[in-house]
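# step 3/5: fold
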Amino acid sequence: MITDARNSSQVAARIETHTLILGGGTVGLFLGVLLSRSKIPVLVIESGGRVPQTDRNNEIGTSIGKVHSGVQLGRTFGLGGTSTLWGGQLAEFDSSDLTMPGREWPITHTELTQLYQSVYEMFDMAPLPVQEYRALFGGETIEDECIERFFTHWLRQPNFAALFKSDISANTNLSIILNLTATEVLFDSYTARSVVALSSDGRKVEIAAKNIVAACGTIENSRFFLSTQRQERIPWSRNNNIGCYFQDHLGGKVASVEIHNEQKLREYFENCFAHSHKLQPKLRLTNKGRMRTGIGMSGALSFDSELTSSFQNLKSLVKAVRSGVSYSTYQSLPSDLRRLGFALFPIMLRYLRDRRVLAFYDKSIEFYVQAEQKPLPDSRIRLESQERQRDGLFKALLDWRISGDEIAAIREFSMLADGYLDRRGIGRLRIFDEILNNDLSALNRLEDTYHQCGGLCMSVSPSLGVVDTDCRVWNTRNVFVAGASVFPTSSHANCTLTALALTFRLASKLSNTK
């Protein structure tokens, strides 16, 4: 059931529930569905409306330090949240991602792998071992010590509001209130008894709950805890770790590709389908390779064509029809179809015959790298001013900082990728000079990838982080955090799958607090 906080006849001034979830985006909806399917009454409050919007980003967050476009472009407010923007790509963390010296995760990779399988089952996915994919797509037999090909999986429906539409409309244990933002938490000693929330038209609503979970997204989670930190008698008032160790992946093109064997290149690196799910072949460091670079790294071939913009427009249209949310228009459809007309037959033939996505690259092929950011305590989220914004919280200030050590690691990874392609007769990389020379100006070529992590990191003690191994906020009994904001490190991989895995873990623990 969905209601609107601006309507007093729908939403009372005081509400009681078992579990209150702050945020109706990717993680908030996932957690709400998991708990409600376990017969636990759940209330999700979302500060946006039914249709996610990006127009509020500027008024509630800004950035300094290295330019971070994701503050403005990589977030939405509304039902489904940022799941309405992403493509649905799922990638797993490696065991070495959890063991960076000084930033170790307080959970094991074995447990995380088991949680991945639980998430896949939720999405009706059954990934094969990576060796089988390598043999199936390209017949790969050579193994390298430091670099390997792997495959990311893509959801058929990335918009979680559409994916869980039946739960949202029919599960009586799941309620959602729109246009409502949590602004205060009221405590009895170390137990939160209720949350005070503000509607977008200024109404106050108090919600009593047995458990409270912040699932607003990385920046909004820190913004909420920093804003409420200014309350009197709040358990996290003296925790100076809130907002620290903000991270995002560094992404960018670092080399051009010289092709030696086009057929083999296509077999190895064109997108493919298995069990009705799209896969994307990429390269990544092995655990041994990770020891050489110190940080995680992955890379993919980027195919550029005169038809790229038309393909993107058509993909956006298909996505809009499937999910019900559109960030493009239909006006370009006739011209896009005319431009793509000659390409449609070979695209269909390649898909039907080989279950591959035919890549066009009449302009160029380049090598795109996604690098883990080395965690820094001074890379952090703060509050910009003493004035509350319209939603009742203070404006966030993101101070994104990069060590610069990433450039040497990218150079090492690019050289390993060059050797990988050469040994298989596929081609060679022409690595850009600033990368080869370890020139820090290469940082200007690299941008954030909207993979925001950290700020409320998991730790083994209150002095080292914000939440414990159960994602419970230190010094509280019933306040939790869900999402990538609890990550101590960010890996080479997109963060959503691991965020969902930890959310599944949290749901299991909360299900035992009936």
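# step 4/5: annotate
The longest strand covers residues 204-214.
# step 5/5: archive (pending)
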